[in-house]
Each structure stands twice: as C-alpha cells, then as structure tokens.
Sequence to fold (217 residues):
Amino acid sequence: MSSSAPTPAYRRLSVEERRSQLLAAALSLFAHRAPEEVSLDDVAEAAGVSRPLVYRYFPGGKQQLYEAALRSAAEELQQCFDEPREGPLLTRLGRALDRYLAFVDEHDAGFSALLQGGSVVETSRTTSIVDGVRRAAAEHILRHLDVTTPGLRLRMTVKVWITAVEAASLLWLDEGKQIPVGELRDWLVDQFVAVLSVTGARDPQTAALVQALAEDG
Fold:
C-alpha cells in the first residue's frame, strides 16, 4: 500500500534567491573563519549545492564571492546606525551601538578578519567597502547631531570615535567578550561624549553640541 502523505513540492529558486542563499552560506562561514580558510567547496557544501553552481553565480571565484559577501555585511553594518531621530541623542546612539555590537558578536571571527586586514583576499575594493561603512556611520551620526556643515575638527572627532568603536570591538573579541555587551555599549557612549568635550574646548561648533547634549540628557 502506498503512503497517502503528500510529497513536498520542489520549488526552483530564482536567480536572486539562489544568489542570496550562496551569500548567506558564505557569510556564515566567514563569520567563524578567516576568509583565506574558506574554500568554494566549503560554501557549496554549506549551501547544499554543487561547486559548479557556485561558479555559475560567481564566475570570478572566491574573490568575487568574498567581495559580494563583504558588501552584504557592509550593508547590514550601515543599517545599524540608521536610527529614527526620536528621543535623546545618546539614547539613539546606544540603540545603534546595540545593533552594531550584536553584529560583531554574531560574526565574531569574520568581523575580525574583515576589519583587521592582512587577508590574502584583501584588495583595494574590499578596503573601499569597509571604508564605506565608516563614512556612512559618520554621516548618520552627524545627521543625528543636526549638523549640515560640520567643521574639520568635528568631522575628525566623529571619525576618530568610529575608529575607537572598531578597535574596542576587536579587543572585546580578542579578550573573549569578558565585558558584558551592555557595559561595553555604555562605555562607548561615554567615550563619544568625552571626545566631543575635548574637541569642544578648542572648537565653538563642537562646544555648542556638547551643551545641547547636556540639555538633551
């Protein structure tokens, strides 16, 4: 007697769906291993497809796949700072950092590999992608500060703080995430206020922002 249970219908993935599947598999691997340690066979196995299929979507091989995965991760990181302009600024910044640090925590070794450089698959294009994340983060922060024409000192201060966030995230990973993530977030927010205050002692535009933050809090 044949079973009456219905056979699951096979659905052919669209080109975009298949590409997204392969990128998701690659990102998952890059999240836990350095890029040079991941092969196309690894990606194919993780996605449950054949190696030739991976080449069909990424004919440039591992380098093209890595850059595409990096762009996908960069888009997600950029969205971390895309916070609605509602409520006190430092509260908004804290929520953005929560998302950023959640990404760092989830992608772990992959985040380190992407930001620390030194990978055999690193190129000027991959460096440009990471720099794009930093620029986007700075633009978001300046918009939250309601500054349309930031002076050099303010721009430098925001960029220096973003670099500090990256460095602290990497050190946090290296130290086994011993500091609770909420404590790390609050420390980084306090650092933001601190660097603005230092710059404000020399720059009237930044000093006005520090005063506004004090009144906003």
Notes: Confidence is low (pLDDT under 50) at residues 5-10.
